[in-house]
Design brief:
The protein has no helices and four strands. The protein is mainly β. It has a four-stranded antiparallel sheet with strand order 1-2-3-4, with no helix packed on it. It is elongated, with a radius of gyration of 16 Å.
Length: 69
C-alpha cells in the first residue's frame, strides 16, 4: 500500500460483427492497449483500435479515465 501504482497490464482484443438483415454490414476491430491502476481507485486505459468495416470507419485512439469505489 506504500506504492502509488497497483499494476500496469498490457492487453490485446478483437471482435467481429456481421449484420445481414436489410443492409449488409460487417465490422472487425483489433486493438492493443495498456491499463494502469493507482492507489485510491484511480486508473486509466489507453487503447489503439484498428477498425475495418463497410463504412470505412477510421482507426481510433481511446483513453479512459477510471474511478473505482
Amino acid at each position: 500500500e506504500q506504492y502509488g501504482i497497483q499494476f500496469i497490464q498490457p492487453y490485446i482484443m478483437g471482435n467481429q460483427l456481421e449484420y445481414t438483415s436489410g443492409t449488409e454490414f460487417k465490422r472487425r476491430d483489433l486493438g492493443v492497449g495498456v491499463a494502469a491502476r493507482f492507489n485510491h481507485g484511480i486508473g486509466f486505459d489507453y487503447e489503439r483500435l484498428y477498425t475495418h468495416d463497410t463504412f470505412n470507419t477510421p482507426d481510433m485512439h481511446l483513453f479512459r479515465l477510471r474511478y473505482e469505489w
